[in-house]
Specification:
The structure is a single chain. This protein has 4 helices and 14 strands. The protein has a 6-stranded antiparallel β-barrel. Strands 2-9-7-4 form a 4-stranded antiparallel beta sheet, with no helix packed on it. The chain has a 4-stranded antiparallel beta sheet with strand order 6-5-3-8, with no helix packed on it. The two termini are about 40 Å apart.
Amino acid sequence: MIASRSIARGLVLLLASISLAGCWDSKNPGYQGWVEADMIFVSPDEQGRVVKLNVREGDHVEVGMPLYAVDDDLQQAALNQSNATLANAQQAYDRAASLSKTGSGTQANFDSALAGLRVAEAQVNTSQTRLARRRMNAPIAGTIQQIYFREGETVPAQKPVVSILPPGNMKVRFFVPEPDLPKLKVGEDVRVTCDGCASDLTAKIYFIATMAEYTPPVIYSLDERSKLVYLIQARPNKPDSLRVGQPVSIFTDGKTP
């Protein structure tokens, strides 16, 4: 009988401890959020066929490293034509300048030849820029996240060929209810937890929305105000330990359940 009572007391204490643990979890669930990133999309100015792809998904690139090349036949032809126009404009300017020195030419002819030379030089610069942009280098350091067009495929103008994720562009997004909004400030550190994350992972708040999400189309009462939520974004201190789309929990008091 005594043994049975001891076992019963043990079961009661075990159930009580489980119940208290559940209460603690429900009292401090944290704010639920997820990881997002601001990608850098690298695209050509004009339509073309990808003739060289220098990177693969997951590669780390530094500023200036070659990413891809698009066929440049049309741009090269345009540059050749601009160079020919420049040569003719240079000859016309030289003749006008020579006549102007001997007094045989007019100032109007000289000014017209000079203007034509300047226009031809500008056209050459434009053609050179168009040609140079057929070979795209990395504008920023980061990791290649996705390749949208591969060698042999035609990419439209302004469509990205690759996307780059700089480490500093990782962010944590979460929502807080209206009553908790005064507790959070820009520049404040919050604790971030997730499956397999480091125990010292934090993030610094850099954005707090001024407009509520999911606003009900009614006049707010004290009860309804608690249903309003506001978006908050924070930069993690260890962005390499997170993955885009990963669910996370946010705690403002530095404690986890």
